[in-house]
Amino acid sequence: MVLCAAPNCDIRYGQGVSMFAFPEDPKLCQIWVRKLKTIDYWPSKHSKLCERHFTPDSFVIEPDRARSMGFSRLQLKKDATPSIFDYTPINAKGHKRKTTEDDTRSAKQGRSSRVLEKRRALEMQDLNESIQIILPPPTQFQDNLETRSTDTCINTESMVDVPKFEMSTQTSYGLVKRRHVSIQTEIRPCMISTGTQMDTIYSQDLPVDLDESLESLTSTNSAVSEWTPSDIDGNNNYLDHHDVPPSYCSRKFIVFEECLDQLLQFCTICGKKCDTRKNVVGTLLLVSRVCVCGEAFTWESQPFTGSMPTGNLVLSSAILISGCSISQTLTMFQHANITCFSERTYHNIQQHYLVPAVERVWKAHQDALFDVIRRQNEAVVVGGDARCCSPGHTAKYGSYSLMDLELGQILDVQLVQSNEVKSSYWMELEGLIRCLKKVEEEGVVISDLVTDRHSQIKAYMKKERTDINHWFDVWHVAKGVFKKLETSGKKKKCKQVADWARSVSNHLYWCAASSDGDGEMVSEKWLSILNHITNVHEGHGERFPKCLHGELEDRDWIKKGSLAFQEMEKVVRGRLLVQDIKKLSPAEQTSALEAYHNVVCHFAPKALHFFYGPMKARLYIAALHFNENSSREQAVNKRGEPIYSVSYPKGRKGTGIPKEVKVKQTYNYAVVLMEEVIRVRLEFGSYRESRKSREAAVRNCPAPIADSYEHVPKTELVERHICRFNKKC
User: Fold this and answer.
1) What's the 3-state SS for 459-511?
2) Beta strand 284-290 with 48-50: parallel, antiparallel or unpaired?
3) Rounded Cα distance, 683 and 41, in Å
4) 380-388 and 446-451 as β-strands: parallel, antiparallel, unpaired?
5) Whole-prediction pTM value?
6) How far apart are the C-alpha atoms of 347 and 326, rounded to whole Å?
7) Start-to-end C-alpha separation, the chain
8) Using an 8 Å Cβ cutoff, are 403 and 383 in contact?
9) Any residues with CB less than 8 A from the CB of 596 and at least 6 apart, and which?
């Protein structure tokens, strides 16, 4: 999110307050920086100031008047400088983060305290270092655009009181609660209506003599406006460009043909009914009429972006950005008898314009994220996990995601195709290697990595990456233990095992969280559960001699030596489990990554097939959405009380679980993506130019899996095909 760089200002983008980039002119920028009165500070290309630091006469139209006229964004005058600031020291203002009992308890736990201190430091740091999505530099628009075609296309958990389990150990609910599990699983876009009566003010940068005095800057033509991208290309050359045409954000309406005829079939001069001709090009309607009085009239239902109907480009972008399926979307339009482009047209637009735009925006967002982490000058704790596009060992794609567990942000996403490795099983290891390489190339040092217990990753980290502390996610291990105990509890005379399954699973969380990464201590605490379930609470081991809980009420204890105890012991003393339990992560977990995978399932459903480029683009969009909404606050009602919902998961067998209701999700990244799509279209101008510019990127993509097999002519396949019951088709 874009945050205001001014001291003691907590305004961020998305709150209805306009944000302005620092001037590109060095002298004018220096005036802005001096106004901040911040020691050793120079703004980056991502830094912004909000409208509250400017007087009303600094704007082209005063804010109150502009908003009354329907303007959603303000524009500064060319010579505007900020003048309204709060220079009160932070300590004097008394800003201090409230400390909960859980934080106090966690702060006493060695490595956990370092995580909490780092999170507090991130909250109190200068706000101009926060994560934001920015646009990459635009490129020079081309004038050689295609000729307009008139061919007709075929329409084609922070509650205190929680439900108690039947059995219990010394585990408290606060230790096993996963903060990130329900970050975001529902994608319900809120439609924002943008008025069409807005006047767009265009400005063009003029060169400024650097030898002018500071006073002469008040008459400079260097414009400062909101969402201004950098004007420098990769070779540090200034580019000439114009603002993105605003037609994509205009409101659109569904108009019935008979209602349209009432407006267009009568001559505006003589009033007589005229013969009209209609041509449909995708979403574009071209209407031409000629009257007997000689009046000729042509009407287009939408503007053009270059030579392409803007509606085709905008609708294609919306389908991809929202995670919709093109086939289902076109089927919906067909049922409603709404004219639209063909599926082939969508794939062409997606390949040549949408995918490049998504890659640019993700690259810019990723660079800004790495820049924030580098400024912290500290090693990061990351979590990694893979997601396969289909279940089993025959998946085509495997996407590996690496997350900063302290920031809760996706750092990198790598897509691996199965023919790039030995088999589908190797995709997870290859994805991890690529992610680590990318992050380390950006100058980010990784101190700890939290993953599941994938055997190849365990071996790789143990042999090749001894410089990184490798931990196992508790949730994955506890889930496996619970399932095994549930299965054992279904056996004859073993019902007690199932009754204790939830408590034993919770005990695993307590073992990891209370041992500060000491593997031997974790092991002793874990094995003590075999004594605890038999009502023996002392003599567990040298380092953990007795249970820490107080007096317990009588319960259904398991008799030592019974069949139920033997089944419990098999699970608890499992060879791999006892070996891996020493590497359980004491603080950070990958539950947030599981929430991110739920988001990926929306943008890239496993039941649908996507080609390599669109699949990668959908993963990037999912990461942009998650990073923007991962830190949403809990919603409150009119009385200021936090709002909760109750869910009844199947695994809880009817036991309700309270969940925090978050504030509504935002979609600022969608605006950035839409603007970048328009820029890419204007830059390339045609499919041919797009293909030329992306030749290198296409060559780096893996070959289709079908190319690795011998192709048999279709006629031969049809002849050899035999239906069931040995009958030829």
Assistant:
1) HHHHHCCCCCEEEECHHHHHHHHHHHHHHHCCCCCCHHHHHHHHHHHHHHHHH
2) unpaired
3) 35
4) parallel
5) 0.67
6) 9
7) 59
8) yes
9) 183, 401, 403, 410, 622, 623, 626
The tokens describing 226, both together, are 């909101």
CB 372 within 8 A of CB 341: no
Residue type, position 575, single letter:
R
Helices (H), 88-192: 90-93, 101-107, 110-124, 173-176
pLDDT of amino acid 552:
86
SS3 404: strand
289 phi, psi to nearest 5 deg: -145, 150
* Residue 93 to residue 91: CA distance in whole angstroms: 5
Q: CB–CB of 450/383 below 8 Å?
A: yes
Q: How many CB atoms lie within 10 A of CB 300?
A: 14
Who contacts 306 (Cβ-Cβ below 8 Å, separation ≥6)? 145, 146, 681, 682, 685
Phi, psi of 214 (to 5 degrees): -60, -30
Paired tokens of 100: 């909960």
Buried b or exposed e, range 247-282, using 16+ CB within 10 angstroms: bbbeeeeeeeeeebeeebebbeeeeeebebebebbb
Pull the structure tokens for residue 588.
């950070």
Looking at residue 75, its pLDDT comes to 82
| CA 404/CA 382 separation, integer angstroms | 5
Long-range pairs, 111-119, Cβ under 8 A, ≥24: 111/516, 111/517, 111/586, 111/587, 112/513, 112/516, 112/586, 112/587, 115/381, 115/406, 115/587, 115/588, 118/378, 118/406, 119/406
Bridge-partner residues for 179, per DSSP?
none
How open is the CA angle 370-622-628, to the nearest 5 degrees?
55
Q: Which two tokens stand for residue 318?
A: 């919306």
Closest CA to 564 of 654, 504, 474, 519: 504
At 409, is the secondary structure helix, strand, or coil? strand
Contacts with 607 (C-beta within 8 Å, 6 or more apart), sequence order: none
DSSP 214: G
Q: b vs e for 672-703, b when ≥16 Cβ sit within 10 Å of the residue's Cβ?
A: bbbbbbbbbbbbbbbeebbeeebeeeeeeeee
- Measured CA to CA, the distance from residue 265 to residue 288 in angstroms comes to 9
User: What amino acid is encoded at 317 in this protein?
Assistant: S
The DSSP output letter for 722 is: B
Backbone angles phi, psi at 638, to 5 degrees: -65, -25
Sign of the dihedral through C-alpha 430, 432, 436, 439:
positive
| CA gap 386, 593 in Å, rounded | 9
Q: Which helix (H) or strand (E) holds 20?
A: strand 19-21
CA dihedral of residues 328, 333, 335, 338 (deg, nearest 10) = -170
β pairing state of 446-451 and 469-472: parallel
| Token pair recorded at residue 435 | 């992610």
With b for 16 or more beta-carbon neighbours within 10 A and e for fewer, the 54-82 pattern comes to beeebbbbebeebeeeebebbbbebebbb
Residue type, 605: P
Q: Is 316 exposed, middle or buried (0-12, 13-18, 19+ CB in 10 A)?
A: buried
The SS3 assignment for 364 reads: helix
- Cβ atoms of 296 and 324 closer than 8 Å: no
Mean pLDDT by 10 residues, the chain (729 residues): 82 80 87 84 84 88 74 80 83 42 40 43 41 37 34 36 39 35 38 33 31 31 34 32 56 91 85 87 91 86 90 95 95 95 95 95 94 91 89 79 93 93 91 95 94 93 94 92 92 91 92 91 93 91 90 88 93 92 89 91 91 95 94 90 89 81 92 92 90 84 85 87 66
